[in-house]
Amino acid sequence: EKQPVMQNLPHRPLILKTGVRFKMTVRFLANLPVFKDLLKVKPIFDKDVEEVKTVNGFRLFDFNLDDSKVLDVDTPDGAMMAAFEHMSLKEKKARTKGSCEPYVLNPLMVTEELHIIRFVAVLHLAGETLDIEASSLPVVVISSSNQVPSAWASIMWFNMLSTSEPMNLSLFVDPPPLSWQQLASLLSWQFLSMGQRPLDQDQLSMLQDKIMDYPEDLVHWNKFSKDESVWIWIDGILDLIKKHLSDLWQHGYIMGFVNKQRTSSLLQNKPTGTFLIRFSESIRDGAITFSWVDHSTGEKRVHAVEPYTKKELSVLSLPDAINHYTLTTQGRSSNPLVYLYPDTPKDAAFGSYYTVPGPSTNKNMKEYVQRRLAVVSINPTPPPSPPRDVPQMDVDTVDPNTDFFQRLEEILSDLLELPEWSNL
Amino acid sequence: EKQPVMQNLPHRPLILKTGVRFKMTVRFLANLPVFKDLLKVKPIFDKDVEEVKTVNGFRLFDFNLDDSKVLDVDTPDGAMMAAFEHMSLKEKKARTKGSCEPYVLNPLMVTEELHIIRFVAVLHLAGETLDIEASSLPVVVISSSNQVPSAWASIMWFNMLSTSEPMNLSLFVDPPPLSWQQLASLLSWQFLSMGQRPLDQDQLSMLQDKIMDYPEDLVHWNKFSKDESVWIWIDGILDLIKKHLSDLWQHGYIMGFVNKQRTSSLLQNKPTGTFLIRFSESIRDGAITFSWVDHSTGEKRVHAVEPYTKKELSVLSLPDAINHYTLTTQGRSSNPLVYLYPDTPKDAAFGSYYTVPGPSTNKNMKEYVQRRLAVVSINPTPPPSPPRDVPQMDVDTVDPNTDFFQRLEEILSDLLELPEWSNL
DNA sequence: ACAGTTTCCCGTAAATGC
DNA sequence: TGCATTTACGGGAAACTG
């Protein structure tokens, strides 16, 4: 008895939110129609889990569920399974009174508590009584969606550590560290499953440098999920990709994880206007910027624009932001972004994502002057040390005898960079 | 008995959402401490409301509430009152079965059902039993916040019609129309209470023209709340003001309700660059635009930019949008907005609301090139019929002998409009 | 005071009912 | 099938609680 003759199906819930409905399905592995109508299965939350009551003082929950179900033949292949569709959890708030033995103060955060759901069935057969039982993999129970990232961190850490050994629901009382290899594959998998593209070696190296002091170190749970919130930062980026950058990420146009130093060294020997796209390392909620190189002042300069946040990307897509970015220096405006590193003309990479101003679909809009949002920067490079003998230009004192031809050349350059010129 | 010796206090709830907690307070008007501890008050939902069961088949609700309360002396002035803090409603879903008499099909929308809450108390005094009862004003019960605007329309309509006559909970079975005067004051009041500024005569006239076919007409409920959704449109604007424009509205910088024709006639004799701010008449969810006049081509032209939506205003405030609006015509860029109608220089009106790029508060931002969002339009006025004999300027064929001084003047004008110039 | 946690509830999307 | 209405629940903020 209690062999795994029952199995809970692949898409188990991983994070359960109190008050939110969830579903689970169990399948009877021995596909014998004889058992049909004989098996009554019932899910039980945290059955026999000792952590609940004593060891760590896990929270207790009321478990609302469908009535016990008889296994049905539901699937095309005739397997016997039961689906519980209306289950939900609610925290039981009666920890203080009615108990003589004092509860142990829970040293874990709620997102570190691992719970399980067991499916139990009793089979009466040939005068014998068989107890059949199947357990889900661990789940984390949260009460608010702001706990999802932490809960997900726990799930990932557990999955990376769980071999075939018995489940340790108190894993986070003394969480084992991960090797860099383990963490790297864990992280890469997140980007692959969420954004259809894993992390490459360069990206992983950057993360390794950021997370670990010595390459041979092990990564500790606290470092990953608590102290420096590395995971919270990465999760923000995953969410950014999901919401606003899935295409660009999937096509590999976003280098993303590159630090400033490496950005500099990658760009410094490239032509002016070469740029790459990086995630902000300082903004927790996920933000993205681009860095470009400019040799026009004679010396190499690498600039990065203030990162774009999710809120901004929801009204201005990154391709459009790149397409229309305008930098004004010394009164001259132009778009400093020309080649996506290493040498792809920006339109070749992003052209297909530009919003075409196209004929307004809305009739009422036709009478309005069309517009678009754009991002504008002013003068990032005041000449390092302006020669004192060359007076700064000033509106009031401008000399109308300034070299007109040079100025005209600049004007014409500006005009050339306005793609709309040909439509005039 | 049943005189109004009890009163429910001013801030009654007007719209109740099922499943959402609400509070009500009743006060005993006769302030006699003798009654203290003798009065038990209980709120009852839709007590004796005949519409509920038969006339119109109103929905039925379960009413969750605090236990009956004894009137307490709570207030500074020693008045007796009781506060019910945890009341909520839940729709009762058992209309079909168990009843022999078939229910009348409800001809009303749920937001037209008017319900009431009665507070009842029994006073045993000197051997006599006194029934005391107080009713709330009508409330509308909704189940989702997408019903709030419709519900609010009902509340307003009721309030405008309710004189001292007994409450008619079936008012919307045959809703009386309003005179324009009534509707005007109803609307103006909304803008006053929400935005600290009522509607002026010009704004009301525009609305009157839009809503009524003949000035002497009455406004019917269907026109206001159903067929053309006039109210939904206005409510979207109220929400836009509340979320993004409260200061500007309060200071009267937003003309808002002006149709195109009047916009044209107001602006046509004003200098080029005079503009006014209008609400979009076509976008239901609340949007705002500006119209400006341009005499520079020799003939009067009034343009309006594609309206800004709430989403856009959440990342770019209207003052900033005005401050940095850039129009590119014939390769020349400038801000066409100069004077807020009638003749206020735009910075005098909006200057104090501009976002100062200021020293980045965030240390980490210092290394980034600062940027701002801006709105850009291209060439709204291809010359009506360009004289064939004057060749259009073209990048490849531009004559370097073009009047340099004139071009320089233009450049300088451009530069003058860049406030950042002085920082270079 | 404060951080971790839960509750509350708006607003949107999806589901439901008629 | 479409529209009216309700339900579901993510997400941000307030409230709670030790």
Automatic annotation (TrEMBL), chains A, B:
GO terms for biological process: signal transduction. Residues 249-370 form the SH2 domain. Keywords: Activator, Cytoplasm, DNA-binding, Nucleus, Phosphoprotein, SH2 domain, Transcription, Transcription regulation. GO terms for cellular component: cytoplasm; nucleus. This is Signal transducer and activator of transcription. The keyword Methyltransferase does not apply. GO terms for molecular function: DNA binding; DNA-binding transcription factor activity. It is found in: Cytoplasm; Nucleus. Belongs to the transcription factor STAT family.
